[in-house]
Please model this.
Amino acid sequence: MPSDTTSTTNRFDFTKSTINRLPTPSTGVAYYYDTKAKGLALSVGTTGRKSFLLYRKIKGRPERIKIGPYPDLSIEQARKSTAVLNAQIAQDANPADTGRAKRNEMTLAELFEKYYEQHSSLRKVTHLEDIEHFRRHVNTSVHGPNLAKLPLSEVTRAKLTAHHARMRAIPTTANRVLALVSSMFSKAIQWSYFEGVNPCRGIEKFPERARERFVQPDEMPRLLYALENEENETVRDFLLTALFTGARRSNVLTMQWADVHMERKEWRIARTKNGTAQTIPLPQAAIEVLQRRQQAVQGLDTPYVFPGPGANGHIVDPQRAWDRVLARGTALGLVDAIAARAKAIEFDYLTAVEEATNFPHQTIERFSALARSHGLFVEHYEMRDLHMHDLRRTLGSWLASGGTSLPIIGKALNHKSPQATQIYARLMLGPVRDAMEEATNAMRNAKGV
Model:
């Protein structure tokens, strides 16, 4: 190991030419010292990487304080930084303590663990949504730098603003993520984990529009077929239960056998998102799914209808399986449309259905050009824009299309206010189409057409 002691060979006036000519050590790290700035040193590693640092004894203890890499940092910049550090030492401060404190500082990911354990899991019905939002939108590089890995002091308003802006395509989710991080920092300040101002303060949220997407009548057969062919049976049954009950995702994920009364065909949810209890009548379709689940979990020591391998004991994030189901449904729609127009010589329907079932993404890519040649568009059969929460809206929409009154729909979905149910009065186009057909036919009859 090279020695930290100085000698005539490793102590000189730092210049670009002298630094650039320094040899690369075969082992360890070589240190060189500047004759102009007290304590300024340069380390050279076996890869040739050079970095400036301050080497001083502070209160009798030798300390190395990183300044920055060369040549990213110029010699003059390194000397100025050294002067600042020396001034702090002269005032009886130890700059190394700041670096050590920063290394020991809680990261945003560590704060989320505390937040979930001490607040979210205890007080929020939507605590599972917090896990999903943090995992998919904060502890990831999808929207830029991974904020979860940063110390709290480095999660600045500027970084959060940029992160929020990159999520503009999903404004509602972006707002929920921002609200989650803001709540986390509020608790961090309250619990003395963080000193300073909440960095989320002042960041403008996106305008939100009520989502109206649901599974359309022509999509329902494809969705059910895609679910029947889903390899993950637990997630398949979870999605079918969500569809047939209209319950919120978090409630279905945590569904327990003790709350299901098969004889009465009822499911009791002790506390829903709006803070109230709900008893859901179980239609026969849901009963059949639950009977299948009873057989699947037989012999397992679990209270959950949809058990999972994690610490929670139940499945937490079925997004991958949901993505497969939607891709399968899209591919099947495209294949059916092509089959109605293409000649048998250029299109083998049975083989295409098998491919769509097992390799949906590749099927969509493979047949897109053929579809266009027949005047068909993938967008017309696209189901990958559906969200899991749209299954809840789907039940409400299909109830509305069947003539169910809005108060009954509100009761079925456990809406707290009538306004939440009003959307279902305008989602289904069937009644509107029938009325328009009747009106236009009357117009044509008036002319004698």
Q: What stands out?
A: Residues 220-318 form a domain with the hpI Integrase; Chain A fold (CATH 1.10.443.10).
